[in-house]
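Fig. S4 source data, part A: sequence.
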Amino acid sequence: MNLIIVSVITFLINIPFGYWRANVRKKSFQWILAIHIPVPFVILLRIYSDIGFELYTYPIVIASYFLGQFTGVKFFNYRKTMQMLTSSCLVMDLYRNNKIR
């Protein structure tokens, strides 16, 4: 895998965690978990993709990490303003939304 694929996967992994983070109190235990649980997955992804830990890869992967978190928060806020079902779990919210229709 190359750096772009790792960045896209990192972005996608972080969207549900950003969604979760948007629905909990700031600096609570759940908020800290929502930020830190994806880190081991990103590290494993870096190891198995053979991009390693070169210095030039850090800004790209970190940017995709925070962009995924930011996108999850924005998606939560969008669903909340549209008065859709919102909880802390993106997967369940999408499932419930499609089940109702």
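Fig. S4 source data, part B ends here. The chain is about 75% helix and 0% strand.
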